[in-house]
Amino acid sequence: MKKHLLFVTCQSEAGDDGLAYAIDLAKTLQEGLTILVVKAKRLGQRFEDLMSAVAFAEENDHETARELARSSEGQEVHPGMVEQCRNMGIEAGMTTAHGDLVPAISTALRNSRAVDMVILSPSITRDGNVSAKQLQRLVRTASRPVVTIARNQLQIA
Question: Which of 20, 49, 58, 119 has the largest count of CB atoms under 10 Å?
Answer without folding.
Answer: 119
